[in-house]
Give the backbone structure.
Amino acid sequence: MSEIKKVYFKTFGCRTNLFDTQVMKSNLLHFECVENEELADVVVVNSCTVTNGADAGVRGYLNKMRQLNKKVYFTGCGVGTKGEEVFNNNLAHGVFAHSFKERVGEFLSHNERFFYAESAPMHLDSTIVTHFSGKSRAFLKIQEGCDFACSYCIIPSVRGSARSYEKEKILSQIRSLCENGVSEVVLTGTNVGSYGKDLHKYNLARLIKDIDSLKMLKRLRIGSLEPSQIDSEFKEVLQLPLMEKHLHIALQHTSNAMLAIMNRHNRVESDLELFSYFAKRGFCLGSDFIVGHPGESEAVWAEALANFKAFPLTHLHPFIYSKRDGTPSSVMKDSIKGDVSKQRLHTLKSIVASNNYAFREANNGVLYVLCEHGIESSEGFVYSGLDQFFNRIRFESKNAHLEGQWLTFDAYNIGKDGNYGKI
């Protein structure tokens, strides 16, 4: 045990994984966590397996750590798909599934190699996370798992069915985070909008009301939602001053034919009605979009693009489809050439960038910004932060140590690629 002192966590993938890493850091016991892998005796790899490309990125990192003679532990979503391969190829000293992550402090002292496959797919952590890597914004996982069956997605099989954390645990975590300097929280999970479906007469809207009643946070943001999960009660709580004026609603596509191929629940007509509702109420709106999925013919793409232009989207997280072995999409025919997919992706990004600029010009009122980080310059410091619409502003100041502070901007310049100011 004495020979293992410093531990580095390498996190791949989503915000849920970032929170899982914080859970492990909270359970390190007598080991020191470092932020530089070169200083570490041990590296814990929290993996993502959402696509074959994600697997390849993790595998490349594991090979790099072996060349550096690091003692490696492998966990995360990749345990269910690549864990045996990683263990058998001696790329990790130990492999452990999601439900074992709170035992990480114990595992780091094991001299014998081990493999712990998932034995409790409905597990929920008991750890209360009190810090989030020294930041003023924290991601807070409120649920695990997903009951959807999108044809391209492996995640339900590695994260399990949807289940929710109890209200009191979530509120306790928010109290602890706020007491340690956090002032903005992002609610996250595998499928955030399903929160409460397994709880008695409780849901995401009621959780938000209870968080608001604490009067401890400056701002609350919600991770990706499914259109079908947004009801009248949820729309009501979004008007609370605590809530960010930005929503991320997962469309994945704007062709009904493509949505059917993807085995999605949403359809274009109701999606557009929902987005228009929020746009009229001053929200910035983001989404995910997969281009190049099998079946996205020229005709389907033409329909999707015409529909897409009608959506008031100001933010977009577009993906070029990447095969994930073991999913229905991975064996579908009619694949799309890579150069075609890239062009389609650039087209969507250009449309949304123009929408975002138009939104910022039309809504040029006061911005409330959480300062994230800064670098020293010849004139002082250059800082960056996100406003209430999830738009980034970069600003100059002669003041040091503004990180973590809330700032108000009533005068600033609106550029094509973002807002700029001084303070």
